[in-house]
Structures are given as structure tokens and as C-alpha cells.
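Notes from the 1:1 (GR / supervisor)

We went over the backlog. Supervisor wanted to see one worked example end to end before approving the batch request, so GR pasted a single chain during the call. The sequence is below; no edits were made to it. Supervisor asked that the structure be written out right there so they could see what the output format looks like.
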Amino acid sequence: MARAVESDSLDSGKVLKSDLKQALEEVRPALGTDDEVLRLRHPYGISHCNDAFGRILRDLDRFTAPVSASTPRLHSLLLVGAGGGVQPGGTGTTALASHAAAEASVNGHADFVRFITALDILTAEGGGGDEARATALVEKFSEAREMSRSLLVLDDIDQICSGSGAQGYSTTMISTLRALLRTPPPSTNVAKAGGQSSGAKDGKSVHIIATTSRPDAACSVLRDVFEETIVVPLLDAESVEKLLTNSLDGIADPVMMAEEIVAQLGSIGCKSAIRVAERAVITAEDGSADSQKRSLQTVLSDLRGDMALTSASCEIR
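Structure output shown during the call:
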């Protein structure tokens, strides 16, 4: 125990109530849910900024609802960020997936929830080769398959499955993922008193939500792997205004800010819109609408300049 090592007190070897409370806060349980991890992935909450997002939230709620079946089930869904925005990604697929998983945990729809990133797969034992990554992914699924109601979020699934194969994917990883998504969890016979099996099924369920910022995933390799695909759209000015009003404090004129962002950058994703607006509020001289507008115009001008340089550099290469 760290406290005992750091202290010379005669009582340092005793386990106190404060030690137990600290342990509960610091030690991640082997089973259960990743509630804190999920919360960190949508720090601004989720905004019902337009009808499309309301429909997506309803779809996710239905997808994560408990499965009423006597046989084991596995269901999979792919969230794809729409393309054409100011920067790749930034549409909010990660936030939506983590929110859906957190809601499923809170509502008791899932008793085992894990948020898995490419880093989790790459740093698994065995290194970052295709075979090692495939083995790590199988282990994540095997853990979930042993629980009664599991939900896995595979964030940036295009990065988890990246490789030198067709369209930038690893053939090994795609084949492994396809097989995993078509393998339901095992049945478990319910034992009667005396050790005899009743032969009844336990109806286990595993739900998989994967996210990607690659818009082409909605019409290529990954779409064929998952049962369902939902595209998260970019936002117009009215939707951005609602998003900023619901998500950020300190914006003096959200209508002005939303119209300015969309006028200069075009349709934009949730994450990108919040990032631009937040920078404008932070760098404004004061909290007035005029000051924030000047700050926003500077931020947008700098962003357009950076984008132009990046585009030119890519053309040179």
C-alpha cells in the first residue's frame, strides 16, 4: 500500500476507511462498466440540435435496448461521420456512441460496457502486427461474450482495422472482425439443484457500436461487415446555433456565431463547430458579442489560412 510505504507512522500498516474509499476511486474493476471513460468522451453532453440527431438518438436507444430472446444474440451498428466538412472527422460519432453506451449502463440495459480504441489494440501483448491485433480484438470480444448483457464501443474502427490491404484496411483484421460479428455469445445451461442441467438458455446479448470518421465507410468494406449503418450528418447554421446554445456557456450571441461559422466554413460537424466557438470565446477581449465576433473572425481566418497551406502542401507532395 502506497501510504504505508511513504509513512513512518506505526499505524501506517493499518487499512483505514479512507484507504478503501481511495481504492474504489482509483482501481478499475475487472467487470462492470466504463462509466467515467464514457463521460469523458462526450464532455459537452449531447444536443438535440435538429431532427436528424433526434432520430439518431432514438435509433441508438432502440439498438441498445435489452433483447427479449431465449437464445443468445449479437447485434452490430456502424456510426459514420459525413464528409465534406471543414476538417476530417469532428461530426460527433464518438460522442454519440459513448453517450448511448453510458445511457445503456445507467438504465441497466448493459451490465458490461467497454470503450475500445486503436491504442488498446496496439498496446496489447504481442505488439502491433496484424496477427497480434487480431488476437487482441478476439480477446476483447471473448470477454464480452462471457457476460449476460454486454456492449462494446469500437472507436475509430477504421484505425483499429487499418493495414495495407484494399482501401487501407488489413485483410486479417477485417476477416477477424467479420467472423466475430457473426458469432453470437455461447449459450449457458441453467443448473438445477443437485447439479442437473435444465437445458434452458440464458439469452445472452452482445451489442457492438463502432465509429469512424471516414465517410466512405458508409459505402465500402466496413458497411458490409456491420448489420446496420447510421450516417451522422453535418450541421447547417440553425443546427449549429442550437448546438452552441445547448453545449457552451458564455456565448453572447449564438445566432451570430453560428451564421458566421457556416458562412465561412460551410456545413460543419458538431465537434468542429464547438471547437471553433470555444476558441473564439476564450480569446475574446471580453464577453461582449462584438468582442466575440472579432475573435471568431480571427479564428476563422487563421483556420482558412491553415487549411489552404495544408491543401497546397498535399498538392506538392
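Supervisor's comment: The beta strands are 73-81, 112-116, 149-154, 205-212, 228-232.
Batch request approved.
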